[in-house]
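Is this the right way to post structure tokens for a design question? Let me know if I should format differently. Anyway, here goes:
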């Protein structure tokens, strides 16, 4: 493991991070004091840093001390013949995550997470992305039915100083899509340093069901684990085998924030935007959560869950009815897999006094009918394994990524059975671009009811075999499928398919 360079190279015009001398001093004192602590909890890292060794007193890592930031919703710059045109700059930025410190990031519009796009089924969008970074970038709309040329294929990049108009047909059911950098070999770096944003596609059906779509009550929650250097910058160290693990959970770019909620129904859209960490989320008081959607949109019916497992790149939409809580209640969303306070505390809901009079309905029974897949016309087995012959590299079917090679050529409109076979001791969240699949079998047991709808990413557990059935629609062309543990996908756990007519 070697520490990575900070994102900004020499010659950039990065400002001094420490705007606030007092807070900065406090943090440095905290680090200095902590570095002399002995014993407890000092096991995972030797670099002096952040949450793993926090003080009892308030520090920048004290959970629930900041309000949940909500990324701004981007407005179109124009509308041409029913197509909304958006524009974004991919650029460096500074953001205040730890009070008094500015953390250098890469960001869409220079912010982390990037702005949210709210799109509507049947109404296409064009997103003009201008690369103001000093290296190649591109944008993948994760979960989108998008023509190959607009998918953000790892080899289709925007050169520094150039722009690309991504055209999104939005001809698919409502779903929580998200966009992120996909230039080959550096996604672990660029996503970690901030190139992530939400793309919320709505349709008539979800409105008929009464699901909240007002941005005040329909909240994207981008969850990612990070670590910090003393100067407040993100700390990253590459670990190709395990994938990166941070010691501090950020939600929408704030350390374990609090969210003031009214006594009414909220739609919480969870995105695991972590490099490689999976979470098992649970409400602190043991209340159940109602899941209504996953990667590919609505479930057939709502599913009550006591815990929610979410792997990198997956989305889970929950409805939480805060009328059931007393005013003044504080309910903590915890990651019960967390190994420390910094990775256990996710978010606290602070129920405000008053409210409770709003009318709304919680969907019960059938929300949608999942389309029937054509019978599979091929069966493939993809072994997921670690190769160590020339440095640590991950493989799919003993192959690493080769952009010149097409690994599978399915016909448009057909489906196949794909068996992800994972003899390794790591979780591999396997993702297919441009298309959706169903999970049809898990060797570890039954398929959870919340995983029976359309998916674009599935967490294949250590030792597990998961069979999925992708449907090769709606476009022909070249797409990739890969592990979304970003260090795995970068090196080089990715293959290529070409859907042919
Ligand atoms: Cu993997």
């Amino acid at each position: 493991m070697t520490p990575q360079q900070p994102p900004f190279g020499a010659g950039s015009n990065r400002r001094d991070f420490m705007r606030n001398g007092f807070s900065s001093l406090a943090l440095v004192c905290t680090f200095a004091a902590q570095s002399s602590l002995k014993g407890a909890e000092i096991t995972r890292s030797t670099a002096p840093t952040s949450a793993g060794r926090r003080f009892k007193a308030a520090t920048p890592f004290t959970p629930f001390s900041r309000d949940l930031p909500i990324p701004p919703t981007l407005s179109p710059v124009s509308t041409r013949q029913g197509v909304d045109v958006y524009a974004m700059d991919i650029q460096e930025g500074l953001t205040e995550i730890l009070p008094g410190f500015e953390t250098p990031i890469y960001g869409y519009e220079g912010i982390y997470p990037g702005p949210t796009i709210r799109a509507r089924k049947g109404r296409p969008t064009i997103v003009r992305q201008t690369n103001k970074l000093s290296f190649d970038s591109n944008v993948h709309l994760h979960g989108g039915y998008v023509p190959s040329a607009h998918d953000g294929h790892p080899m289709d990049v925007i050169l520094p100083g150039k722009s690309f108009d991504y055209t999104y047909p939005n001809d698919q059911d409502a779903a929580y899509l998200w966009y992120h950098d996909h230039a080959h070999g550096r996604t672990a770096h660029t996503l970690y340093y901030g190139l992530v944003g939400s793309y919320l596609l709505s349709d008539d059906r979800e409105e008929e069901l009464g699901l909240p779509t007002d941005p005040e009550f329909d909240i994207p929650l981008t969850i990612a684990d990070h670590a910090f250097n003393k100067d407040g910058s993100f700390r990253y160290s590459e670990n190709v085998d395990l994938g990166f693990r941070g010691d501090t959970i950020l939600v929408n770019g704030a350390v374990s924030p609090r969210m003031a909620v009214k006594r009414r129904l909220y739609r919480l859209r969870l995105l695991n935007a972590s490099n490689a960490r999976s979470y098992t989320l649970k409400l602190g008081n043991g209340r159940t959560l109602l899941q209504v959607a996953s990667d590919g949109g609505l479930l057939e019916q709502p599913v009550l869950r006591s815990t929610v497992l979410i792997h990198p790149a997956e989305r889970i939409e929950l409805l939480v009815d805060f009328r059931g809580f007393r005013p003044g209640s504080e309910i903590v969303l915890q990651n019960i897999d967390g190994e420390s306070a910094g990775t256990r505390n996710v978010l606290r809901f602070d129920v405000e006094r008053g409210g409770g009079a709003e009318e709304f309905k919680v969907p019960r029974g059938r929300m949608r009918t999942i389309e029937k897949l054509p019978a599979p016309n091929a069966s493939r087995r993809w072994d997921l394994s670690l190769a160590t012959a020339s440095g640590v590299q991950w493989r799919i079917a003993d192959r690493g990524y080769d952009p010149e090679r097409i690994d599978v050529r399915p016909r448009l409109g057909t489906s196949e059975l794909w068996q992800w076979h994972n003899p390794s001791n790591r979780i591999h969240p396997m993702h297919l671009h441009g298309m959706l699949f169903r999970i049809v079998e898990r060797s570890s047991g039954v398929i959870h009811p919340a995983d029976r709808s359309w998916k674009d990413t599935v967490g294949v557990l250590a030792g597990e075999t998961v069979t999925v059935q992708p449907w090769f629609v709606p476009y022909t062309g070249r797409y990739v499928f890969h592990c979304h543990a970003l260090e795995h996908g970068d090196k080089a756990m990715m293959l290529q398919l070409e859907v042919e007519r």
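Format looks fine. Someone answered above. Worth noting: The radius of gyration is 22 Å. Residues 1-6, 9-49, 52-57 have pLDDT under 50 and may be disordered.
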